[in-house]
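Our preliminary data section would be incomplete without showing what the modeling component actually yields. Below, a chain of 110 amino acids is followed by its predicted structure, encoded as tokens that our downstream tools consume directly.
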Amino acid sequence: MDEITIDRQQFEELNKKVDKIYQFIKRFEDQAPPSEDEPWLDTFEMCNILHVSAKTLYRYRKKNLIPHTFLGDKPRYFPSQVYRVLKNKIIKCDPKYINDFYQNYINDAK
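Predicted structure:
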């Protein structure tokens, strides 16, 4: 068996990167896939729900803070996944908006 040696600083940097990957995976690990009949939300609806601009929503997508998928070149969002993000405080949002979102999109879907 070959032995590889690295200095402490390199090891700590590598360990931090592995930990970041672990935290990223852990965040989405418990998410159930959306149901087939769940409606998709578009960018306009998401901006209104979160009370953010389209540019802020774009930054959330780029940082992988909010689950999304693309249909063609348009991003789409599942309410159940967005609700988990808001509930887990991955994105800061006024609790009133979270409750409104739950009442209008999650509760109605049941």
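The first helix runs from residue 8 to 29. The first strand starts at residue 69 and ends at 71. Preliminary results of this kind motivate Aim 1 of the renewal.
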